[in-house]
Amino acid sequence: MKIIDKKFNKNILQSLPIIFLYILVLTGFDLSFLFYGVDLSFNFVYLIIFFFVLKNPNNLSYGLIFFAGIINDVVQNFPIGISSINYLLLCAIAAFIRSRMILPNLFYDWILFFIAIIIVSSINYTALTVIFEIPIKYGTLMLNVILTFLIYPVLSKIFSENVLLIMRSEDD
Predict the structure, then answer these.
(1) CB contact set of 38 (below 8 Å; sequence gap of 6+)
(2) Is residue 5 packed enough to be buried (19+ CB in 10 Å), middle (13-18) or exposed (0-12)?
(3) DSSP letters along 21-42, please?
(4) What is the CA radius of gyration of the chain?
């Protein structure tokens, strides 16, 4: 019975990023709040995708990330495929960083995450404004990118604990 419990706990820990990603995508959740009349928000989906593709790529497959992008487009009322392209581009950047990184370091991850979300956000909003003519507030866009960048170290520490738990359960 103990072996079954260990396997169950291991499977739950390994599927936690997928569950968390799909909950965020299905609910369209972005932590948004007004502060002195300015709409502040974080993009948690970018954080989850970047971190887990960078640190533990076995938990999130590209097919699941693509499908999450399709669901996000439907929920957010975007043209189908925009979020999938953004998510897969973020995956490609994180995979490239993972292949080139010798010593993992939170500071380097943080800076490279900022560069990655600037690239992804600029392509996303360029496509939405140029191709689909959807009006965008660029101040809100940049504020969203900066706040997502600033919250990365906190969530990275929280997610690192999850990755360590998964690695410990694999050793048992």
Answers:
(1) 143
(2) exposed
(3) HHHHHHHT---EEEETTEEEE-
(4) 17
Number of domains in the chain: 1
**pTM score over 0.90:** no
Q: Are 15 and 56 in contact (CB under 8 A)?
A: no
- The residue assigned the tokens 């490279």 is 112
Nearest Cα neighbor of 50 from 3, 22, 89 is: 89
Q: What is the pLDDT of residues 94-138, one digit of tens each?
A: 999 999 888 888 899 999 999 999 999 989 888 888 887 877 777
Distance of CA 76 to the CA centre of its chain: 16
The CATH number that applies at residue 45 is: 1.10.1760
Q: Which amino acid is it at 78?
A: F
